[in-house]
UniProtKB/TrEMBL annotation:
Keyword vocabulary terms for this entry: DNA-binding, Transcription, Transcription regulation
InterPro entries documented for this protein: GntR_C, TF_FadR/GntR_C, Tscrpt_reg_HTH_GntR, WH-like_DNA-bd_sf, WH_DNA-bd_sf
Domain of life of the organism encoding this protein: Bacteria
Protein name per UniProt: GntR family transcriptional regulator
Gene3D superfamilies registered for this protein in UniProt: GntR ligand-binding domain-like, Winged helix-like DNA-binding domain superfamily/Winged helix DNA-binding domain
GO molecular function (one): DNA binding
Keyword Transcription recorded: yes
HTH gntR-type domain ranges (all copies): 9-77
C-alpha cells in the first residue's frame, strides 16, 4: 500500500491512520525500520511537525519504538498488541504462562471441532518444520517454529479474536520459551515432540477432549521447568 498525499484538515490523525494501515497490512513489518523522517515528509506531502506528532503518537501506543542514533522501528502490529506486550513485561512469568495455557487449551479444543482439511495439512507442515528446527540445533529457529505451530493451531480454531490474542501473547513470551528450552531438563521435555504429535493427532481425529488433554500435558511440563529456574538476580 503506497503512502498517499494528504490534504485534509486533521492531518496528524490522517497520517497516524495511514501509518497504522501500513503496519497492520504488513507493509511495515514488525521488527523493521520505518522510512526516515525526510522521506515520510516527502511521500505524505505534509510538514515535518505533522510527521513527528504522528510518529510520537504511535510510539506512545507502543506500535513504534525509537532507537537512539538508528531510527524508528515497528514494535507491534496493532495498539492492542502493543498493550498486551506492555502488560506482559510487568507480568510474573508463571502468570503469563498460565494465560498461554488457557488460550492453547481452548484453541486445541476448538480446532478439533472445527478444523478443515486445509487446516490439518497446515498443522502437519508446521509440525514437521518444528521437528526439523529442533534437529538443526538452532534455538532461535526452534522457538520460531514452535510459535508458528501454535499459531497454526489457533488459526484452526476459526476464532479470529482468539488467534489475534494468542499471536500477541506468544510474541511477548519469547524469553519465557527460551527459559523452558534452556532449562536443565531432559531433551524430551525441552522439545516435547511426542506431545505435539499427540495434539495434531487428536485434532485430526476431531477428539476435542484428547486435544485439550495433550495441550495441558505439554504445558504442565513447561511450567514445571520454569518453576525449577533459579530466581533472577
Amino acid at each position: 500500500m503506497p503512502l498517499r498525499s494528504t490534504a485534509r484538515t486533521n492531518l496528524v490523525d490522517l497520517v497516524i491512520a495511514q501509518m497504522e494501515s501500513l503496519i497492520s497490512d504488513g507493509e511495515w513489518e514488525v521488527g523493521t525500520k520505518i522510512p526516515a523522517e525526510p522521506l515520510l515528509v516527502e511521500q505524505l506531502a505534509v510538514g515535518r511537525n505533522t510527521v513527528r506528532e504522528a510518529v510520537r503518537a504511535l510510539v506512545h501506543t507502543g506500535m513504534l519504538e525509537p532507537r537512539q542514533g538508528d531510527g524508528t522501528y515497528v514494535r507491534a502490529d496493532s495498539d492492542f498488541g502493543a498493550a498486551v506486550q506492555r502488560r506482559l513485561r510487568r507480568a510474573n512469568v508463571l502468570d503469563a504462562y498460565e494465560v498461554r495455557a488457557s488460550l492453547e487449551r481452548d484453541a486445541a479444543r476448538h480446532a478439533a471441532e472445527r478444523r478443515t482439511p486445509e487446516d490439518l495439512a497446515a498443522l502437519r507442515t508446521a509440525l514437521a518444520e518444528r521437528r526439523t528446527a529442533w534437529e538443526s540445533g538452532d534455538t532461535d529457529a526452534f522457538i520460531d517454529a514452535d510459535m508458528a505451530f501454535h499459531r497454526t493451531v489457533a488459526a484452526a480454531a476459526h476464532n479470529p479474536v482468539l488467534a489475534e490474542l494468542y499471536g500477541h501473547l506468544s510474541d511477548g513470551m519469547r524469553a519465557t520459551l527460551q527459559s523452558v528450552i534452556g532449562a536443565p531438563v531432559p531433551d524430551s521435555v525441552r522439545h516435547q515432540i511426542d506431545a505435539h504429535d499427540a495434539i495434531v493427532d487428536a485434532i485430526e481425529a476431531r477428539d476435542a477432549a484428547a486435544a485439550e488433554a495433550a495441550v495441558l500435558a505439554h504445558l504442565a511440563e513447561g511450567m514445571a521447568a520454569l518453576r525449577e529456574q533459579p530466581p533472577a538476580g
